[in-house]
TrEMBL record:
SUPFAM superfamilies linked: Alkaline phosphatase-like (SSF53649)
MF GO annotations: hydrolase activity
Name of protein: Type I phosphodiesterase / nucleotide pyrophosphatase
Amino acid sequence: MRFFCHLTFIASVVCLGAVSGFCEQTPERRVLVIGIDGCRRDALQAAKTPALDSLVADGAMSESTQILGKRYRFNNTVSGPGWSSFLTGVWADKHGVHDNSFKGKNYVDFPHFFARIKQRFPAARTVSLVDWEPIDTHIVSHADVHKVYPAEGADGYTEQDAVIARDAAEILASDDPHAMMVYFGAVDETGHRDGFHPSVASYLSAIETVDSNVQKVLAALRSRPNYKSEHWLVLVSTDHGGRGTSHGGGHDLPEINTTFLIVSGSDAAKGPIESPTELVDLPMTALVHLGVTIDPNWKLDGKPVGLR
Ligand SMILES: [Zn+2]
């Protein structure tokens, strides 16, 4: 990382005598965001998920996170708007995505949260690994590393999720990310094939497989030589739940529009989050943890949750 050392050196020289606090090129803390597409909270509870349990044990969890806002809830309950809210921190009237056509998208004014990190910390290293291609095509920006793993069907996504976990672990072992987004698609695909419900064995099994992927990523994270001093915050959530074999039009269905949010790490609060939480809180929590000063002109809809 000669490049970054050099940058840091220049920054520290340039900043001598300048107003303190606004010269650092990289944040002191770090964030790992894990997205599990289409994961129902009751199925997550029913599945055996030791890796995710370890995150909950070392953090805070909300089990009533709303994927639609109080202020604005007219988008469909599908992945396009869901991941847009999850990654930009604003509702669909701002990011403009109401369905999976991505028509009306406005990521120029309401970009991926990596953009806000880079604004404050230009040398922060950002990584995005996803296998639902539209996230990478449409939403991701300001990523130093972004990879897409095209997949089809539940089995295809299961295969690619495993590759994503392997690559994420490798990046955590050999690279130096400050913010990393890892996305797994197989749970949603399995729900569409067999049903979104805790009584569907293959759906639970898909969640358990994702948990084993999460385990690999966490093992690599916890093995980083400076793991303790890097103050990693791990955030886990989803874009929607499901009912039957779909999840569209779920505005009044809690099994679709009410989900979970895990906030874990040494800087996280411990125990259940009792206050209301929304999907747009996730990127705001990441930004606040990283020390990004929130500009009101960004018009973010979320608030930080689950931090100490
Ligand atoms: Zn989805």
